[in-house]
Amino acid sequence: MPHRWDPVAPPVPTLVRPVRIDPAGRTGPTRGQARGPAWQSVGPGLVVAATAGHSFEQRIVEAHARVGDRAVITGAAALRLHGAGFFDGLARDGRTRLPVQVAANGERLGSDDAITALRYTVPPDEVVLLHGVPCTTVERALFDEMRRIGHVREMAVAVGAVCAARLTSVKRMRLYAATRRWYRDVRVVREAVEMAVEGCRSPQEDRFRMIWEYDAGWGRPLLNRSILDRHGHLVAVPDLLDAKRGVVGEYAGADHRDIDRHEADIEREAAIRGVGLEYVEVVAGDLRSSARVVGRMEDALARTGRLPQLWTLGPAPSPTLDELLDRRDGLVE
How far is 330 from 266, CA to CA, in rounded Å? Predict the structure, then answer.
């Protein structure tokens, strides 16, 4: 069963296409039938079976049914259909539904609670068909999602989340932005791409990484690199590691509250300290105060050097993300 925080989206559930109300009842329900419990309205004259469910993917299909043939799904919705698990159609609070972004592409569209109509024209080479829905390519979808987000750090987090799903890389997004100099907001997108990294396993981990790198000024940490003891045995694979300072950083999500997981975390922390490294742990609430996190990091730094360093760094991951993507796309053998 996929982990809750798997960067790759689970298989797309069965999608139910909306139909138009048909006075004759041949291609869809009559108006009277549509008012019954078996149907629910998704737009003017459009209904879907009440059994369709409310997944993000289903909402995307319903949004597409409301727009013209030329319109293209983009942003987080397109990324979800490409397979990016961290794009679930919800705001950061985990409750508020985000509208589906639709590039009008020449259609006359209006926005509402379910759809955000963007007055963008999408060239044919940036359109793909996913589950029967016209969507933008990964790089274009991410570009549009970054423009929606607007905040540079959160834009960089979005890049990292798509890289974690192995759909694109920082290098590919850098090239895409460099060859789209006429696109609106390209300057801030390029700035965010330079802040982005590959290797974080969750958006919260990436937010911790940016506090570590930019607010604390510690520079870019090693991400999810294995730590070995003197005998070459695995000690841990921490979220963040500053090998020079001898400090590791861990983000503890909600799943770490489970008693078995918590016990394992305590043992892991002891093992890390046992080879001479100091340990900084943060939870979601900590990330709202960079000063709190930086203070915790400085406290850990002050404790380093008291124990002998009995660890070595494990090998860098291989192949690289770009190598994986190039093989996937048939660019190399």
Answer: 44
Three-class secondary structure assignment of the chain: CCCCCCCECCCCCCCCCCEECCCCCCCCCCHHHHCCCCEEEEECCEEEEHHHCCCHHHHHHHHHHHCCCCCEECHHHHHHHHCECCCCCECCCCCCECCEEEECCCCCCCCCCCEEEECCCCCHHHEEEECCEEEECHHHHHHHHHHHHCCHHHHHHHHHHHHHCCCCCHHHHHHHHHCCCCCCCHHHHHHHHHHCCCCCCCHHHHHHHHHHHHHCCCCCCEECCCEEECCCCEEECCCEEECCCCEEEEECCHHHHCHHHHHHHHHHHHHHHHCCCEEEEECHHHHHCHHHHHHHHHHHHHHCCCCCCCEEECCCCCCCHHHHHHHHCCCCC
Rounded to the nearest angstrom, the gap between the alpha carbon of residue 284 and the centroid of all alpha carbons in its chain is 16
Splitting the chain (333 residues) into consecutive groups of 10 residues, what average pLDDT does each group show?
74 92 94 94 93 94 93 98 97 93 94 94 96 97 97 98 98 96 94 97 97 97 96 96 96 66 84 95 95 97 88 94 96 82
Does the global pTM surpass 0.90?
A: yes
